């Protein structure tokens, strides 16, 4: 059985690091894993997506429309943009966070209202204020690892040694805060501190 995880966000949010950690963990757990990335001007705040598929035998790295088991969105407008890739029975983890594209930042159009509410009315949705949570931990850059922790918990992948992977793939100075962020994401997904 192949599972598909679609991670989407905006350049600079750490979407790719989260995907790489996820992919490495799944491979170490013995899964056949395929990953593909799309960087749309990611250095300048463009759309970034990463598709991770794992199982006994994965033929293609590409998630087709309506094929994702889980959509993890690091920015809420990106969740809306990629929603059609989610299975009807799939789940969305959405970071309640806004990064407007140039058209919005320049004032040409307003940031759309009610995105999270609209997504929640259509599919099973977990809303996390990862930016707020990261700020409380003392480093706003660990937002991606909070979301990774929530993803791991939601997909039932807790038996992989994620702490070891974080230690091996994150700069030493940031290991502890990333481990803390990951644990917090797991708790949030568990509903202990859920913002739902």
Automatic annotation (TrEMBL):
Task: Show the Pfam families listed in the entry.
Answer: POR
Q: Which domain of life is it from?
A: Bacteria
InterPro entries linked to this entry = IorB_Oxidoreductase, Pyrv/ketoisovalerate_OxRed_cat, Pyrv_flavodox_OxRed_cen
Asked if Oxidoreductase is a keyword of the record, the answer is: yes
For this UniProt record, give its keywords in alphabetical order, as a comma-separated list: Oxidoreductase, Pyruvate
**MF-aspect GO terms:** oxidoreductase activity, acting on the aldehyde or oxo group of donors
Domain Pyruvate/ketoisovalerate oxidoreductase catalytic as annotated: residue spans: 11-186
- State what protein this is by name: Pyruvate ferredoxin/flavodoxin oxidoreductase
Organism expressing this protein natively? Alkaliphilus oremlandii (strain OhILAs)
């Amino acid at each position: 059985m192949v599972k598909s995880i679609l991670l989407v966000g905006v350049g600079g949010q750490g979407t790719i690091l989260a995907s790489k950690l996820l992919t490495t963990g799944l491979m170490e757990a013995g899964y056949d894993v395929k990953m593909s990335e799309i960087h749309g001007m990611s250095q300048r705040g463009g759309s970034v997506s990463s598709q991770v598929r794992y199982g006994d035998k994965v033929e293609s790295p590409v998630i087709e429309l309506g094929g994702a088991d889980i959509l993890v969105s690091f920015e809420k407008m990106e969740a809306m943009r990629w929603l059609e890739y989610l299975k009807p029975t799939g789940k969305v983890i959405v970071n309640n966070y806004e990064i407007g594209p140039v058209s919005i930042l320049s004032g040409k159009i307003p940031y759309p209202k009610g995105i999270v509410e609209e997504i929640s009315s259509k599919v099973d949705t977990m809303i996390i204020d990862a930016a707020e949570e990261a700020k409380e931990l003392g480093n706003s850059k660990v937002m991606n690892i909070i979301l990774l922790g929530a993803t791991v918990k939601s997909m039932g992948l807790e038996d992989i040694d994620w702490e070891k992977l974080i230690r091996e793939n994150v700069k030493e100075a940031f290991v502890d805060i990333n481990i803390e962020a990951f644990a917090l994401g797991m708790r949030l997904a568990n509903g202990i501190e859920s913002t739902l």
